[in-house]
Specification:
With 488 residues, this protein is of the alpha/beta class. The chain contains 16 helices and 19 strands. Bound molecules: flavin-adenine dinucleotide.
Length: 488
Amino acid sequence: MKKNIAIIGSGFSSLAAASYLAQAGNDVTIYEKNATLGGRARKLSADGFTFDMGPTWYWMPDVFDRFFADFGKKTSDYYALQKLDPAYRVYFGKNEHITIGDTLEKIIAAFEKEESGSSLKLKEFIKKAQDNYNIAIKDLVYRPGLSPLELITASTARKIGQFFSTISKEVRAEFTNPKLISILEFPVLFLGAKPSRTPAFYNFMNYADFGLGTFHPKTGMYAVVEGMTSLAKELGVEVRTDQNVEKILIENKKAVGIVIEGEKIKSDIVLSGADYHHTETLLDQKYRQYSEAYWEKKTMAPSALLFYVGFDKKIENMAHHTLFFDVDFEAHSKAIYDRPEWPEEPLFYASFPSKTENCFAPEGKEAGTFLIPLAPGLRDTPKLRENYFDKIMVRLEKITGQEVKEYVIFKNSFCINDFVSEYNSYKGNAYGLANTLMQTAFLRPKLKSGKVENLFFTGQLTVPGPGVPPALISGKLAAGLIENKTHI
Ligand SMILES: Cc1cc2nc3c(=O)[nH]c(=O)nc-3n(C[C@H](O)[C@H](O)[C@H](O)COP(=O)(O)OP(=O)(O)OC[C@H]3O[C@@H](n4cnc5c(N)ncnc54)[C@H](O)[C@@H]3O)c2cc1C
């Protein structure tokens, strides 16, 4: 039966859900509080520079291909992709780096150069990771987290030990070189928790990294938002921006619409892709499923301090994606997860898309985005932000051997307070609820409300978890539940 569906928010999960629901014949409208679509994947353009404000790594291209194929389309119908070579570079000190190439063969050679004998171990490690990828990404993550039984299949039964061991243990059992260990632990940071708290089964992220590679959508990640928006509109989805949803209307324990600027908008179904915790605040207390104490106990993925910087010259010795792992990984992760505080010496990530495409910066200049992961909920002040900008500029100059700070001609920052005010993010988290063992699949906040009929949730705080590919899957799962399909 054709339904009228109101979707809160326009992140990747909402855009994906909207397309599936429209394809099923429903009347679908997206209500986004901000002026632009795409949620955390915003674009900033100023003084001739362009920055992706949120995601910059395009991983798991097969998930995007599967999404577009569900509509009889190809990814290339909406945007062009380029495989990056190098995929990324990791600095461990001054002039000391490892470059990750675009093929497994190149990466294996780089490992062998660093630690003799490691190439064979890496081949074996990636083979297992690929096996997990095939089980997880082709099947398990497309299950809606309704019951623990979803996780029990012939393939997972043989892997049960990997749910109780951790990435950290598995990597250390094979590799002793600290640089190689850091590189192998890096991909699980996308899942939001420490490698020592992430189940070993999640090493499928290493296959995504080394086996599938890192891609760059032409003109940046925002091209994906534009592509998905075009598809949704082609399917008849109505998209409205500057629409802050103030309340979800309930009658007889059923969601019957939303309120925007005091006006009641009726619908048969409400689906929210806004931060899960925030969505529940749009309900009267008695209709909320999870208490403040519940959220307080959860391991959130980190927040971040971001800088979008225009430089008045070309910056040398940087790859499109560059990680600065020249300080103690453990000390920084303690400051995120164990004893939340601003890290003494932060690890940081830099993205220089103008290394790949000229459209990001005027000729002879460079656009750089810098990201420092932080514990959510920390005090965020302009002074702290400036301190950390200085810290990372000093390190960048020292490690890459050049002056950069005096060439800054544009700078903007984004941090915890902005995540809260712009996206209604719980404690200013950047990418949702972490994937730890106790926060996996059916143990995550549910896609379907247990207290209110016709109310559904999607996005990075529910199933399957943080990241753009999981957001696409989350949208599909929520749409499937609305259409009464439990395994799609
Ligand atoms: C800095 C950063 C870097 C990242 N890097 C990567 C990366 O490289 N690769 C990767 O795969 N992932 C990355 N991620 C994670 C990825 O971007 C997210 O997991 C994904 O975009 C989340 O999508 P979503 O649909 O769950 O929600 P969101 O993007 O959070 O969208 C929710 C939307 O709801 C809107 N909203 C909130 N409240 C209301 C309301 N009351 N009324 C109306 N609208 C409302 C918000 O404005 C927002 O647009 C990164 C995230 C960040 C922040």
